[in-house]
Amino acid sequence: MTTKSMHAILVLEDGKIFKGKSFGATGERFGEAVFNTSITGYQEIITDPSYKFQIVTMTYPLIGNYGVNEEDVESKKPWLSAFVIKELSSISSNWRSTMALDEYLKKHDIPGIQGIDTRALTRHLRLQGAMQAVVSTEDFDTSRLIKKIKASQHLEGVDLVKDVTCDKAYDWNKKGKYKVIVLDCGVKFNILRNLEKAGCKVVVMPAAVQPKEILDAKPDGLLFSNGPGDPAAVKYVIKTAQELVGKLPIFGICLGHQMLGLALGAKTYKLKFGHHGGNHPVKDLNTGKVAITSQNHGFNVDMNTMPDKGTVATHLNLYDNTVEGMENSKLKFFSVQYHPEAGPGPHDAGYLFEKFVKMMEKNA
């Protein structure tokens, strides 16, 4: 007979309720409910710091079939608030697997809920937009949970970067032709791996580091990393970008792209349900080529508000025509809204790391 401890409930801010079964840790977690359309890569998603304070729903129905390993993590731990799936695989079969997904989430105190209609949930979020939610294995009083949701911290206007950035600077690797400083706003390890692969010596610095300290390190280039939450709330990184843009080659990824946009005077806005998945077609406006990209962001740069006439849009999302990249050759920077380091299957965007290296080479 099913016990109460095996039950779990997902309640959305608008009163929509989904009842299922618990896996992973127990407890009560709040966050913004979003959906991810990737077929594989759940471990990359779970450990991506950009998912801080979010309740992530996977649209693919069977999750956990290849387990978890210690090599494919994208940060020091999982950051999402809770994990929502249709069905947890009862078998974890892969030669690299070291533990089951259920055990991994228990270890890191992340609750999960399975057995709900994730198609219905995704459609609801698609129509109504991402919204605040709670996953609970303890309290099943829906009216009380909705009150808790409304009283909980929301995403907009909150600096989440301070929670995910590193405590102090560190060397990712010791050798490389070009020295790159990575400003850690919630950087994924695969960004660092790709820079190393491209021949760079990588030094990671905390998000709040002073611009002078970056310049004193005499880097050949600077990368503003991905990260969670509302870019407009992270004013110290925006200030750093304002002071350093034009002084050395800069590459921005996701939140880093948004920070550069804000630094140049543009505004950002919140997307209705965000872009989360591994299959977004993005058109390069210079070449006409279309790349299949991995994405994870809830905010976007409004290029119509960009006062700097030398900064132009370079990429376009073919799902909704939102801007996915920008560049300014005079100020020596380019940035993209998607994740060129991610590997959900397509690797179409990996060339951008080589582009960054060529920019540093030209500037040397």
Structure description:
- The protein has helices spanning 42-46, 101-107, 118-128, 142-151, 161-164, 189-197, 211-216, 235-244, 255-263, 351-363; strands at residues 7-12, 17-24, 28-36, 54-58, 62-63, 82-84, 87-88, 111-114, 131-136, 170-171, 178-184, 200-206, 221-224, 250-253, 267-284, 290-302, 312-317, 323-328, 333-336.
- Helix 8 packs across helix 9 (255-263).
- Helix 6 links the parallel strand 11 (178-184) and strand 12.
- The chain has 364 residues and is an alpha/beta fold.
- It is globular and about 60 Å long.
- The protein folds into 2 domains: 4-151, Carbamoyl-phosphate synthase small subunit, N-terminal domain (Glucose Oxidase, domain 1), CATH 3.50.30; 161-363, Rossmann fold, CATH 3.40.50.
Relative strand content:
25-35%
Secondary-structure-derived class: alpha/beta
Q: Secondary-structure element sequence?
A: EEEHEEEEHEHEHHEEHEHEHEHEEEEEH
Q: Characterize the largest beta sheet: strand count, sense, and whether it forms a barrel.
A: 10 strands, mixed
Total of helices: 10
Strand order of the largest sheet: 10-12-11-13-14-19-18-17-15-16
- Regions with pLDDT < 50 over 5+ consecutive residues? 1-5
- Share of helix among residues? 10-25%
The first-level CATH class of the largest domain is given as Alpha Beta
| Rg value | 20 Å
Can you tell me the overall shape?
Answer: globular
Please give the domain count. 2
Distance between the termini: 70 Å
Summed over residues and divided by their number, the pLDDT gives a mean of 95
| CATH superfamily caption of the largest domain | Class I glutamine amidotransferase (GATase) domain
Q: What name does the CATH topology of the largest domain carry?
A: Rossmann fold
